[in-house]
C-alpha cells in the first residue's frame, strides 16, 4: 500500500508532519480530514512501503478509518444541497476576499478552502467552499471547480481565476477581483441611493400628469365649450385628442411595447448579433466610455500580473482575451494576438488595429523600450482606473439635474397650457 508524507495544520494551528498509509491520494486526504488536519502538502513516498507483515493490519486500520468516516461524511453531504448553488454578490465578494487573504498569507488552496468551510459565520459559502475543495482535491483545476460549484462566479471570474492559476499569482488576481466586485457593489448601492429621490419625483410627475389628463383638462374643456365664443387652444386640442386615443387603444401600444422588448432581447441574445450589440454599447454616450475604461483597467491589470509572474507575452494575451466579455473588443484582441504571434511588437500590433487610444499604446511602448512592461501596464491600469472613477462620478452627477429638468418641463408645460386656456376663457366671457 502506498505511503504518503504529509505536512498539515492541526486544530490549534500548529504544523505537524508525518506519514499515512492510504490506497490513493483522495483516500489520504479523507484520512487527514478525519483526524482534524488541514493538509498543506501531500506527496507519495515512493521509497517507503508498508512492511508485508503489517499489510493486513494497515489495511484493516484503513478500512476501519473509512468505515468510521462514512457516517460523518454522509451526514455532511446530506446537509449540502445538490447541484450548483447561487450566491449573492456580497457572498461572492466575501468568498474572494477571504480566499485571497489566506492565499496571500502563504496557505495552499485546499487548506484555505478547508478553513473557509470550517468557519461558522460564512453561511452558504461553506457549502460552496466544500464543493470546490472536493473538486480540487480530486484533481480538477480551481477555475473549472468554480464553474461547477456556482453560476454566480460568472465567466469573467472563472477566466481570471484560470489566468491566476497559469501565472502563479492567484492570490493577487483574486485580490484585484475582490476590489473590482466591491467597486461594483458600492456603485450599485450609490446608484440606488441616488435614484431614490429622482424616482419619487418621477412617480409624482406621472401622478400629476395623470390627474391633469384625466380630470383637470376634461373639466377645463367642458368649461370652455360651455362658454359663449369659447374655443380650445390648439395645444389643448392636441392633448385631448392624444388622451382620448390612448384611452381607447392603450392595450395595443402595450402589446407593441412588450413585443418590441422581446424582439430586441432575442436579437441581442443571438450569437450572430452579440458583436454588433457590444460594438454599439461602446458608442453610446456616457455608457460607452465607462465600458471602455473598465475594459482597459481589467485588461491592463490582468496583463501586468501575468507578465510580471513570468508568463510569455503571447500566452498572457490569450488569457487576457479569454477574460474579456465584450465580443467587439475580444475580436480586436484576436487581431493583436495574431500579429504578435507573427513576430510584431505588442505596441505595433495595437497601433495597427486602430481600436486603442494613443495614451494606451504609448505607455505600453515605453514599457517595451525600458524592459519593464509589467510596471508600465500597472501604471496605465491605475491611470484608467482614475478615468473610470471620473466617468462614474460624472454620470451620477448628471442623473439628478436631468430628471429635474425633464419633470419641470413636463409639469410646467401642462400648467402653462391650462393657465393660458383659463385666461382665454375669462377674456371670452368679458367680451360677451
**Beta-strand residue percentage:** under 5%
Cα-atom Rg, whole angstroms?
A: 32 Å
Q: Helix count?
A: 16
Low-confidence stretches: 49-78
- Described by the principal axes of the CA atoms, the overall outline is elongated
Number of strands: 3
* Main structural class: mainly alpha
First-last Cα distance: 115 Å
The chain-level mean pLDDT equals 77
- Major sheet: arrangement of strands: 2-1-3
What is the helix fraction of residues, given as a range? Answer: over 70%
Order of helices and strands: EEHEHHHHHHHHHHHHHHH
Largest sheet, in brief, is: 3 strands, antiparallel
Task: Throw out a few tags for this protein.
three-stranded antiparallel beta sheet; T2SS_GspF_sf; 432 residues; single chain; transmembrane helix; cell membrane; mainly alpha; membrane
Structural notes for this entry:
The chain has helices at 25-34, 55-79, 89-104, 109-118, 125-137, 142-149, 154-167, 170-226, 234-269, 274-283, 287-308, 313-322, 327-341, 346-353, 358-370, 373-431, and strands spanning 3-9, 15-21, 38-44. The relative contact order is 0.07. The chain is elongated, with a radius of gyration of 32 Å. Strand 1 and strand 2 form a beta hairpin. It contains 16 helices and 3 strands. By secondary structure, the chain is mainly alpha-helical. It holds the Pfam family T2SSF. It is a multi-pass membrane protein. InterPro entries: GspF/PilC, T2SS_GspF_dom, T2SS_GspF_sf.
